[in-house]
Design goal:
By secondary structure, this protein is of the alpha/beta class. It is built from 14 helices and 15 strands. The strands form 4 sheets. It has a 7-stranded mixed beta sheet, sandwiched between helices. The longest helix has 22 residues. Bound molecules: pyridoxal-5'-phosphate.
Length: 387
C-alpha cells in the first residue's frame, strides 16, 4: 500500500517530512558538501547553514544559539542528559530521580548507569491520568538526587506534566533538571526560560523534520561533559562532523511548525473531538486515557474493554489505517507497557489500548472513518454495550 492510499494516524511515532524541509536540505546533499569545520571558502555555506539553523532553533524555544547542541535524535539527547548527571561528577547521593512513565531512552540509560556506576534510580509515581504526584516528588527531591529527568509530555497517553513547578522545586535544592520534550517541541509553545529547565531533549522527526537528528538544549553555565569524544564540533562537547542537511531540515521544519502551531492545534482539536464523539456514542465503555485537558494536540489513547488491540491494529492495517497499540504481543504473552501499568489501568483495558495520533495532514473525514472502523470491529467482536 502506498502512502497516498493509507490513512496515517501514528504521528507520535514519526511524522512526514515537510516538503519545505526537504527543499532546504537539498543543496547540502548535493553541491554544498563542504565540511563546516574546514577553513577554506567552499565550506562557508555549510558553516553558515549550521549557525543559521542553530539560531532558528534557539528562537523557537526561547533559548540562545550557544545553548543548542545538535545530536542524532531524541534517544541520544536523553542518553547525554542522563549520563551528564554522572559525568559532571556531582556525586551527591549517587541517585537519579525520574518518573515512572519515562521513555525507554531514559529508562534504559538509567538502568545501565545503575549497573555500571552503582547509582540508584528512583521512579516517582503518577496518578491515574499520568500526572506526577507532586507531594511524593517533593519528598524525593528533598533527598537531593544528582539529577532529575521528568518528561514534558508522555508519548503513550499524551499527558502534559507541570514541568515549571517541578523544575522550580529542583532549582530550590540546586539539582539539575532535564526534560524529555520529544513529543512536545513543534506542537505546543515552548519557552525554556519559562519552563526553568537546565536541559531539554528534542527530535526532528517528531515535528516533520528528517529522522536521525535532534538537539539537546543546555542552559548556559550548566556543567556539560562530552558524551561522544573526538573532534571539537559543538563547542567541543559533541564530536563528529555535523549532518548539515539534516540540521537545516530540522530548523526549517521547526520554524514552519511554530508558525502554523495555532492553526494546527485548532485543526487537531476538531479531529480529536470528531473521533471521540463517535467512539463515546457507540462504545460507552471505552476509556480515554491520560489527562483530557492538559494533553498533546491530536493525541488519543483509547482503551476498549474485551478487545485485543493487537488484533484490531492488524484489521485496521488491512483497511489502510496506521495506528499503534499500548500492549505488545510476545509469542507467549501480552506485554503491557510500563506507562499503562504506572497509571494502574486494569489489564483488560490495557490489552485493548490503541494510540491514535493525528497530524495536520489528516482530515475530519479520516478521523470519522477510523472511528467508524473501530466501532464496526467492536460490534463484530460482540463487545457488550456497543450501540
Ligand atoms: N522520548 C520520547 C518521549 C519519544 O517519544 C521518543 C520517540 O518515540 C524518543 C524519546 C526517542 O526519540 P528518537 O526516535 O529521535 O530517538
Amino acid at each position: 500500500m502506498t502512502a497516498k492510499q493509507m490513512i496515517y494516524a501514528d504521528n507520535a511515532a514519526t511524522t512526514k517530512l515537510a516538503p519545505e524541509a526537504l527543499e532546504a536540505m537539498m543543496p547540502f546533499l548535493t553541491d554544498e558538501y563542504g565540511n563546516p569545520s574546514s577553513l577554506y571558502s567552499f565550506s562557508r555555506p555549510a558553516k553558515k547553514a549550521l549557525a543559521d539553523a542553530r539560531a532558528v532553533i534557539a528562537k523557537c524555544i526561547g533559548a540562545s544559539p550557544d545553548e543548542i547542541f545538535f545530536t542524532s535524535g531524541g534517544t541520544e539527547s536523553d542518553n547525554w542528559a542522563i549520563n551528564n548527571f554522572v559525568l559532571a561528577e556531582f556525586h551527591r547521593k549517587r541517585n537519579i530521580l525520574i518518573s515512572s512513565i519515562e521513555h525507554h531512552a531514559i529508562f534504559n540509560t538509567c538502568r545501565k548507569i545503575a549497573l555500571v556506576h552503582r547509582y540508584t534510580i528512583t521512579p516517582t509515581p503518577v496518578d491515574d491520568k499520568g500526572k506526577i504526584i507532586l507531594p511524593t516528588y517533593k519528598e524525593y527531591v528533598k533527598e537531593c538526587p544528582d539529577g532529575i529527568s521528568i518528561m514534558l509530555a508522555n508519548n503513550e497517553i499524551g499527558t502534559i506534566e507541570d514541568i515549571t513547578q517541578m523544575a522550580d522545586i529542583a532549582q530550590h535544592y540546586g539539582i539539575p533538571f532535564h526534560t524529555d520534550a520529544v513529543q512536545v517541541v513543534g506542537h505546543i509553545p515552548i519557552d525554556v526560560r519559562e519552563l526553568g529547565v537546565d536541559m531539554l531533549s528534542a527530535s526532528a522527526h517528531k515535528f516533520n523534520g528528517p529522522k536521525g537528528i535532534g538537539f539537546l538544549y543546555v542552559k548556559q553555565n550548566t556543567v556539560l561533559k562530552p558524551f561522544i569524544d573526538g573532534g571539537q564540533q559543538e563547542a567541543g562537547r559533541r564530536a563528529g562532523t555535523e549532518n548539515v542537511a539534516a540540521i537545516v531540515g530540522m530548523a526549517t521544519a521547526l520554524k514552519l511548525n511554530c508558525e502554523r502551531m495555532s492553526e494546527n492545534r485548532r485543526k487537531l482539536k476538531a479531529l480529536t473531538n470528531t473521533f471521540k464523539n463517535i467512539i463515546s456514542e457507540h462504545l460507552p465503555n471505552a476509556v480515554f486515557n491520560g489527562d483530557q485537558v492538559r494533553r498533546l494536540p491530536g493525541h488519543i489513547s483509547l482503551s476498549l474493554p474485551g478487545i485485543s488491540a493487537e488484533g484490531l491494529l492488524h484489521v485496521l492495517d488491512l483497511q489502510g489505517i496506521a495506528v499503534s497499540t499500548g500492549a505488545a504481543c510476545n509469542s507467549k504473552f501480552i506485554e503491557i507497557s510500563h506507562v499503562l501499568k504506572a497509571i494502574d489501568l486494569p489489564e483488560k483495558l490495557a490489552k485493548g489500548t490503541l494510540r491514535i495520533t493525528f497530524g495536520p495532514d489528516n482530515s475530519v473525514a479520516q478521523a470519522q472513518y477510523i472511528a467508524d472502523k473501530i466501532v464496526e470491529y467492536c460490534k463484530t467482536a460482540g463487545v457488550k454495550h456497543a450501540r
